[in-house]
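From the shared-data thread, chain only:
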Amino acid sequence: MSSGALAAQINPAGAQLSILRDSSGRELLWDGNPAFWTGRAPLLFPIVGTLVGGTYRVANRTYALSRHGFARDKPFEVLSTSATSALLRLKADAQTLAVYPFHFQLQVHFEVSGPTLTVTTSVQNEGDTPMPASFGYHPAFRWPLPFGAARALHAIEFDLDEPAPIRRLDAAGLVTPVRYPTPIHARRLQLDDELFVNDVLILDAVRSRGVRYGADTGAGLAVKFPDTPYLGLWSKPGAPFICIEPWHGMADPVGFTGDFTEKPGVFIVPAGAERELRMQVTLMSG
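Structure, as tokens:
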């Protein structure tokens, strides 16, 4: 699909954004090179991150889920396509009910308009009991972007000041109780491989609902996330991508023993209701 200013392709396997290009054909999205990471922009559902012991408890029963849940590994049904949009759907089946006992429907709508890609995900509860869930976006953008600036000159600038400490993961992928001083200064995070030696930066008290990514000169990307209270920033040292990840949920804290409904970032969708979560990516001219 294309707006003229922006072109995108969606892979029904995981409803994953697989290509994002500008009008000159320059690649903005990571290509999934397995030498670093095979993902491009997976959807995280019904959990974000890792569970203590790989399991969670709901209604006095225990279920196993791997990191980030199952949506990224499931084939989505293509409901509709047009020159500028696509709508895909994942519904509960016997396989998902065995690990997540809720009759859900996940609809993901992609649309390009001018320089903006808008992704709207609807988490729908088709059951007759309240449904707890988490959801996250995980897009990986080129680092450096293909506009001529060196990798070392790239930064993420936040819409607002971000004085709150950040969180980190332990070796098992769980959120530690330690709160680290923020590396964001005057709304700016200068990107450097050292930031990611200890995995993801977790902003669980982020004030902004948008960031701009790129170098000080040339084009860049604005990422808006109006419906998600957490933000993850992740790369691998030396890898040519940066993930800007709006989350509604995160990994279990170390030692977490609560019910799934008590897990940080989990939201509850009432029976017959839905919850929408949006992300916008806009190509900003230099």
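The first helix runs from residue 94 to 97.
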